[in-house]
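Known limitations

Structure tokens in this collection are predictions and should be treated as such. Users comparing against experimental data should check residue numbering before alignment. To illustrate the layout, the record for Glucosamine 6-phosphate N-acetyltransferase is reproduced below. The input appears on top and the generated tokens appear beneath it.
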Amino acid sequence: MGVEEERFLVLRNEESLFDPEWIPEIKDIPDGLVVRPLYSNDYENGFLQVLEQLTTVGNVDNQQFIDRFQSMKSSQSYYVVVIEDEELHQVIAAATLVIEQKFIHNTGSRGRVEDVVVDKQWRGMKLGAILNNVLVEMAKNLNVYKLSLECKDNLMPFYSRFGYKEDVKFMVQRFDKH
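Generated tokens:
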């Protein structure tokens, strides 16, 4: 972690989900925005409100957020990347890279991209593309043998721009509590 990043974390009293050094250099980020790991105080910075634009979040309170954050951090398998409006200190986009450790492929690791979302007010600025490029580079740097994601049919052309190809169908069982 660089001195400037360390100072920024101390001033804002945050804990980072993972080392910011894992995030590759980003050339096309609009002024006033920063790409960074999820912070422990992003409950207050609108992270869940952005995530709610993608799927059902539920009634998550701050303590539940912190508990999940700590659980994800301790596993060292979750890389939640956010884009923040630095002036407003608001999360405006997010995406997650999950690393699964395997016995197959010489005890390799597989990456999964999940929960890619851009706040509706910020769409059309290529922030989703920035997040996808970041996650793809991170996956390469983490030496995954495969990176996959699930998406709706209408999003397949978008993701194909990042090197994803349609693969076999999958099945799912849902165990919704509601």
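For this record: The chain has six helices and five strands. The radius of gyration is 16 Å. Please report discrepancies through the issue tracker.
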